[in-house]
Amino acid sequence: MRMQNNVVLVTGAGQGIGRAIASRLASEGAYIIINDLYENDNTRETLREVQGAGSNGCIIAGDVSDTVICRDIIAEGFSWAGGIDVLVNNAGIERNAEFLDVTEKDFDAVMNVNLKGAFFMTQAFAQHFRNTKRKGRIINISSVHEELPFPHFTSYCISKGGMKMMMRNLSIELAPLGITINNVAPGAIETPINKSLLNNPQQLAELTHNIPAGRLGKPLDVANAVLWLASDEADYVTGSTVYIDGGLLWNYQEQ
Q: What is the mean pLDDT of residues 186-199?
């Protein structure tokens, strides 16, 4: 049980990759704090999966794009569970538009959730480690698009590129506090956000052709990487991105 006696907060845990992370870490003994925008059927289903994996948890809903709410989520988590050992910044959104048509509203929405939210959740989490001897872990769910261009998703790529540099800077600043920080960067994963792709055989075939592994990833593929980074096995790993993409990043070609 690699995560026994650890408390893990996962943002955006109501479905997809976030739910898989919550369930996988719970199976290794972690108590899971489930965050999403609202407490609803999705978050309650994640809690049921956590319990089915043999652990327990709670739901703390809140919008991570709001810096005040970020602090409230972290404070409530520390109060409710007696501490938080691992923060997984998984919440993320994207907007599809040609650059010339991107609206300020959509740009702000993407940046506020994906980058600002991760920044201030991380800050609120790290502040609790001042003058303590505890160890902490921060794992950001980034994307291959922290490196790989993605036409019509420029704001999304900016947010993930910013997350990469944030992680690198903070690996230096947070190490004296006993905190490691790393990114997990998924490629094409079978999640609800990719529903239109999964229902389009031609697009799916074209994408799969670019993946040397010959398949899309599963949420569990990402969750397993998060588990390793959250565990003591990765105690000396910080400032790194782990790509979970079946080789897509180094083989991608626009059709």
A: 80
What is the residue-wise DSSP string for the chain?
Answer: -TTTT-EEEETTTTSHHHHHHHHHHHHTT-EEEE--SS-SHHHHHHHHHHHHTT--EEE----TTSHHHHHHHHHHHHHHHS--SEEEE---------GGG--HHHHHHHHIIIIIHHHHHHHHHHHTTTT----EEEEEE--GGGTS--TT-HHHHHHHHHHHHHHHHHHHHHGGGTEEEEEEEE-SB-SGGGHHHHT-HHHHHHHHHT-TTSS-B-HHHHHHHHHHHHSGGGTT--S-EEEESTT-TTT----
CB of 152 closer than 8 Å to CB of 96: yes
- What is the DSSP annotation of 30-72? -EEEE--SS-SHHHHHHHHHHHHTT--EEE----TTSHHHHHH
Reading phi first (left if > 0) and then psi (alpha if -120 to 50, else beta), residue 60 is in beta
pLDDT of residue 201: 78
Entry pTM: 0.95
* φ and ψ at residue 189, rounded to 5 degrees: -120, 145
Enumerate the active-site residues: 156
106-141 per-position pLDDT tens digit:
999 999 999 999 999 999 999 999 988 889 999 999
Token output for 16: 């997809």
